[in-house]
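User: My collaborator sent over this chain with a note saying "see what the structure looks like." That's all I know about it. Can you take a look?
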Amino acid sequence: MAAPRDALLRVDDRGGEPACVDGVDAQQVERDALGRLGADARESTQLASCALIVAALLLAAVGLYSVTAYATEQRTREIGLRIALGAQARQIWWLVTRSATRQLVVGLSVGIAGAIGLGQLLRGLLIGTSATDPVTLAAVTALLALVTFVASVIPARRAIRIDPIATLRSE
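Assistant: Without extra context I'll predict from the sequence alone. Here is the result:
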């Protein structure tokens, strides 16, 4: 085992570079090894990035759900009165999802402005995309819109099923 290692470590007389021994170029071996290490580091970084993205989406979904559910719970009497006065399920659905949609619009406005601003500052660190990549911004917007819709489904369904008589008697 020591013989191949010693052969690779021999220094060529011409310039102090590792010698090419039996068709093996020591510099190429080193480049290949460093390339593999770089690829492993990139894969680890991508995996960590994906985990952070999923965690951020879950946090956004739980936050939107919580705020929407709380707001719906606070408006139970109003929703019950609207149902008693003849509001349709679609109107109640829109009433509940409108607040989540407002949160989405405000969040996206601040988020996209921040992403573009910070992206310009961190332009050198972005690889394979630009700070103002419209496809990325559109994909994030669509994904967050979907998360907002899913987060508002349960509170909206709960609001539609409110019994107006029980709600009005509870006060």
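A starting point for your reply to your collaborator: The beta strands are 20-21, 24-25.
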